[in-house]
Design goal:
Elements (H helix, E strand, L loop, with lengths): L5 E5 L3 H10 L4 E5 L16 E2 L8 H11 L6 H20 L25 E2 L6 H14 L4 E4 L3 E8 L2 E8 L5 E5 L2 E4 L20 H8 L4 E2 L4 E8 L2 H5 L7 H5 L3 E3 L19 H14 L5 E4 L5 H7 L1 H9 L9 E10 L2 E3 L11 E3 L4 E2 L12 H18 L6 H4 L10 E2 L26 E2 L2 H11 L3 E2 L1 H12 L1 E2 L5 H22 L8 E2 L14 E3 L18
Parallel strand pairs: 1-2, 1-9, 2-5, 9-16, 15-17, 18-23, 19-21, 20-22
Antiparallel strand pairs: 3-4, 6-7, 7-8, 10-15, 10-23, 11-14, 12-13, 13-14
Length: 552
């Protein structure tokens, strides 16, 4: 094993677990995750994994559907990789023990979801696809001797030497700061649904990987595109924290959306009605809710029998019944909620970022595969496909450590926009307490998580405009996060990300996919490209970045 390297994988959803498993064929892998190994966005995925596995389907159709949903902003090469290589990766999952559902005649079962021209969404445990995948992969990782797992370990900042990744600052499970050296780091730490007051994401989704990469000077892209899932359960209790997801597959099985008076409305908005692209359904629901004084709209699945709903959607069935709702008899209240970030750390098709030795896969990355709006059930497939490609690049990479220089993303075109003014250097030794001594703090006021999420929900949500975005940026640029708990460090990451997301949303003076500007309601040819940003790399994690955002 002379070419064995030490590779750190951060995050334990499908992307991190697949990357770790594949890398462990040759390398020593340390997998860092901030909760238990089995917790991640993946675990909560319901609908399934889209892939062309049936003779009446075609890769070209999956590609076409993905490009249409992406609203002119997809990277076609990434879409081609996803749809072409995805089926082989599904077969890998089956070999790893993932038990997808089958029909009575022994064929793989498949569902239909919005904006797919064919039923091609594989599922497991009915609507427990993510949990089934996560459980199988966690088992495989636990049995792999080349993988060390560090649970309850918070990834704080990347350590760079001569511009390349050399290690990771962590807070370990005892709450102590330390550094882990690494030859390469694969970020697979997921999205940042907790930027918003209402999100379908679990509490771990605080965007730590994108924030860390941004602070290290990596290019990020497409951050203005945050996907809102149309149907999260709008019961009083769930609106207070994370609303429970009601899978798009429910509409795929024929459920319809009703206004407060019990009439369907989506057919007046789009010919595909409830199965229109996700951004259109989410905006249709938000607009209908505004017309009915904020009352939730209703999802009506009563055309299906109680037995069918319980068998096909056991997780949702249990969740609704736990809230004293009988969805086989009555329509249930739903509302849109933040669900998936199309933007992230800019990568090529092997997960290479703009920093040598730093790789990113899954929701934390932006390959451009989703464009401005992700097609339903393409995210698990993306994680699987690109994590595998990234790992295999590193397996094939048998040259010396200097090869990490060559492995930085260099092929992507277009200069990144500078995001922030250069901060003065500080070399103080790292301690979490040092984070409190921020030079710009005197000019800022504290912001807590709830205020940040509320600001993002009200000013940077499903619909945006320049006035609200400027007001949000003004507040964000004059805010800092106090405290040194993990929750505070996560909130600080959310604040860093909120600033750049709002900057990107202000810069994109058009409407496209998930980014809808009421002051620029049409797409513009001038914006048919990604917006990419960087900020000057921090040389030490001892100072935070609270300078003003440079207008684009
Ligand atoms: C769902 O089940 O509706 C979520 C699927 C996805 O976000 O792709």
């Amino acid at each position: 094993m002379s070419n064995t390297k030490h590779i750190l994988v951060v995050g334990s959803g499908i992307a991190g677990l697949i990357a770790a498993l594949e890398l462990s064929r040759q390398h020593a892998v340390t997998l860092v995750t901030k909760a238990v190994l089995a917790e991640s966005n993946t675990r909560w995925a319901q609908g399934g994994i889209a892939a062309v596995m049936f003779s009446d389907d075609a890769v070209a159709d999956h590609i076409a559907d993905t490009l249409v949903a992406g609203a002119g902003l997809c990277n076609p090469n990434a879409v081609n990789v996803l749809c072409t290589e995805g089926p082989d990766r599904i077969r890998d999952l089956i070999r790893l023990g993932v038990a997808f559902d089958h029909t009575p005649d022994g064929q793989l079962a498949r569902g239909l979801e919005a904006a797919h021209s064919k039923a091609r969404v594989l599922h497991a445990g009915g609507d427990a696809t993510g949990l089934t995948v996560e459980t199988a992969l966690v088992l495989a990782v636990r049995h792999q001797p080349n993988i060390s797992v560090l649970e309850h370990t918070f990834a704080l900042d990347l350590v760079l030497q001569n511009g390349a990744v050399a290690g990771l600052e962590i807070i370990d499970s005892e709450g102590l700061p330390r550094t882990i050296d690494a030859d390469a780091i694969v970020l697979a730490s997921g999205g940042a649904g907790h930027l918003y007051l209402h999100t379908t994401n679990p509490s771990v989704a605080t965007g730590d990987g994108v924030a860390m990469a941004l602070r290290a000077g990596a290019q990020v892209a497409d951050l203005e595109f945050y996907q809102f899932h149309p149907t999260a359960l709008a019961t009083a209790s769930s609106l207070d924290s994370s609303p429970f997801l009601i899978s798009e597959a429910v509409r795929g099985e024929g459920a319809v959306l009703l206004d407060a008076s019990g009439s369907r409305f989506m057919q007046h908005i789009h010919p595909s009605a409830e199965l229109a692209p996700r951004d259109i359904v989410a905006r249709g629901i938000a607009s209908q809710m505004a017309d009915q004084q904020g009352l939730p709209v209703l999802l009506d699945a009563t055309a299906k029998s109680a037995d069918f709903l319980a068998a096909r959607f056991p997780t949702i069935d249990a969740a609704t019944r736990a809230r004293n709702l009988d969805w086989s008899r009555n329509p249930i209240p739903i509302t849109p909620a933040a669900h998936y970030w199309m933007g992230g750390i800019r990568t090529d098709l092997h997960g290479r970022t703009s920093i040598p030795g730093l790789y990113a896969v899954g929701e934390v990355a932006c390959t451009g595969v989703h464009g401005a709006n992700r097609l339903a059930s393409n995210s698990l497939l993306e994680s699987l496909t690109f994590a595998w490609r990234c790992a295999h690049l590193l397996l094939d990479d048998t040259t010396s450590a200097t090869s990490s220089e060559a492995s930085a993303l260099s092929s992507l075109e277009g200069a990144a926009l500078p995001l922030r003014r250069q901060e003065p250097e500080q070399t103080e030794a790292f301690t979490p307490e040092a984070r409190l001594r921020q030079p710009a703090e005197a000019r800022t006021t504290p912001i807590d998580r709830l205020s940040l999420q509320t600001l993002m929900w009200t000013h940077v949500g499903i619909e945006r405009n320049a006035t609200d975005l400027r007001a949000a940026l003004h507040t964000l640029n004059r805010s800092h996060v106090e405290g040194i708990t993990i929750h505070d460090l996560e909130t600080r990451n959310l604040l860093d990300l909120a600033r750049v997301l709002v900057t990107a949303a202000l810069a994109r003076e058009e409407s496209r996919g998930a980014h809808f500007r009421t002051d620029f309601p049409e797409p513009s040819a001038a914006f048919q490209h990604s917006l990419t940003y960087t900020q000057p790399a921090r040389t030490s994690p001892t100072h935070d970045i609270l300078s003003e955002t440079v207008p684009c």
